[in-house]
Amino acid sequence: MTMGMFDSPRDNALHLLASSWGEWNGDVEAPMGSFARIQITSYELEDVVANNADILAEAELLNLNELVGHFLLQTDSNGLEYVFEMSENEVLRAFSDLEVEYSEWGSEDDDEDETYPCGCPLYTFDAAICTAPVVDRHA
């Protein structure tokens, strides 16, 4: 079985399907990790199966009806992967909250990297405007 770190073939299948069927965001280096939401209705199941037979075979999922539902998936910086089954509204709310948290984390990271300690913008060093002593410039 190729499940790896998953609790079930369903969770493995959802992670494999999420790249083509789900909506991903985040980064495994971020505190909230990378995350996805995936929704498969009973009406979509036939299409999912028809277009992803190789993925489902790899996951060794026997009961394809287990894919029907609303799921939030997360991968943390240790490579641990989690699958949460929730109502549609709960998944949408959790995904939105994670997007906001990720955006704020990314903004904090960007703010720290915009200038050198002397105040010069990154990647545009100009010795004529830098106020740092020559020995301290952009080491």
Principal-axis shape = elongated
Provide the helix percentage: 25-40%
- Largest β sheet strand count, sense and barrel closure: 4 strands, antiparallel
How do the SSEs run, as a string of H and E? HEEHHEEH
The gyration radius over C-alpha positions equals: 22 Å
- What is the end-to-end distance? 51 Å
What's the total number of strands?
4
Strand order of the largest sheet: 1-2-3-4
Number of helices: 4
Describe this structure in words.
- The chain is α+β, with helices and mostly antiparallel strands.
- It is built from four helices and four strands.
- A four-stranded antiparallel beta sheet has the order 1-2-3-4, sandwiched between helices.
- The radius of gyration is 22 Å and the shape is elongated.
- The protein starts with 8 loop residues before the first helix and ends in a 27-residue tail after the last helix.
Summarize this structure as a short list of keywords or feature phrases.
139 residues; alpha+beta; 4-stranded antiparallel β-sheet; elongated
Topology:
Layout: H1 9-21, E1 23-26, E2 34-40, H2 45-51, H3 53-59, E3 69-75, E4 81-86, H4 88-112
Antiparallel strand pairs: 1-2, 2-3, 3-4
Short description, anyone?
This protein is α+β, with helices and mostly antiparallel strands. The protein has four helices and four strands, in the order H-E-E-H-H-E-E-H.
